[in-house]
Fold this sequence. Notes:
Blueprint: H1 2-5, H2 16-28, H3 31-35, H4 40-72, H5 83-94, H6 98-102, H7 107-146, H8 157-169
Amino acid sequence: IDLINTLPNKITLNEQSAVEMAKESYDALTEAQQVLVTNKARLLQAEEEIADLQAEKKANEAAAQAVIEAIAALPDTITLEAQDDVQQAKVQFELLTAAQQALVTNKDVLEQAQQTIASLQTEQEKEAALQRENEAIAKAMMKEIDALPAQITLKDAKTVQALSEKLNRLTEAQ
């Protein structure tokens, strides 16, 4: 009775050994002695709570393990081709409860992969903007060349010279 009475109202997995000890003590009693235990229901309730907590712990560990494996499956070198996999791992992580997220031992790998993807996207956006700029410069040069008369004469020499200088300043990409 005293062992059962020492159990807290809110059972956690930290009380598992105390619950087990109370149950072992109860089981060691004779049937006649067990009948005299007035708080047996509290012991049974504590056992159920421990079983529920253990099941919850296993479920949390399994959910976290699935995310750990998804993160571990990401390539060592993150490229934009891995973007969907990184996003999927991120979504899986975010769908976990806070308790489950705390069990994910490699979330730093996921965070680093996300940062790498963001950096690569920024790089790709800069390259695309530069490509658009180069295309606009090339298009403008083509317009100027197309504007030259079909028959070039000496009076067009300055215009041709200016265009030639502009062409020489263009980069290979332009």
